[in-house]
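Issue 218. Parser rejects a valid record. Input:
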Amino acid sequence: MTKVASPTRKMFVGIKVPLSLARLLTDFRRTQLIDDEGIQWSGPNDLHITLKFIGAVAATTITQILGTLGNIHSARFEVYLSGADVFQDVGVLVVDMQRDVELMSLQSTIAAALSGDGASSNGPAYRPHITLARWKNIATDQQSSQDVIRTQLDQYCQALPAKSFLVTEIILYETVSGHYRIVKEFKVDG
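Output the parser choked on:
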């Protein structure tokens, strides 16, 4: 008898960027003279800080993940923008976040809690950031234009009236057709 594979869903845990700040960040594109033909920009509703990439999980595992996340406790805390960067190897334009104790502790707690729930535990060290754009084709000749855009974004972020926001919830997201759908929100303790 052949077993039918259970469908999988691509999931991650994150912190949603409030829409007011998300709009300011996505306005960067409109305020700069950028040749963005080869760039795919994130929309304001998709901006988030990933806490833990889970990856493809069977639908039957989602209930377990929801239970695990429901048992995570954290006080509310502020997160702060710290500048801009480009992940050159994958062609991603990001706004870096300060690695404050509260943020790093929450990320570590979630990663440890989900390690037994089928979440991927390999990969690079955690670096909190908000992804603003992706280059469609990564080419070494684009590095100079990436550096210019990174510098412009860094200056833009430094001039923003709001450079932080209060974390009030963590969210289990599902990736659907290149966008992020909220599966469930978990309030952090007040």
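Fixed in the parser; the record now loads. Residues 8-187 form a domain with the Cyclic Phosphodiesterase; Chain: A, fold (CATH 3.90.1140.10).
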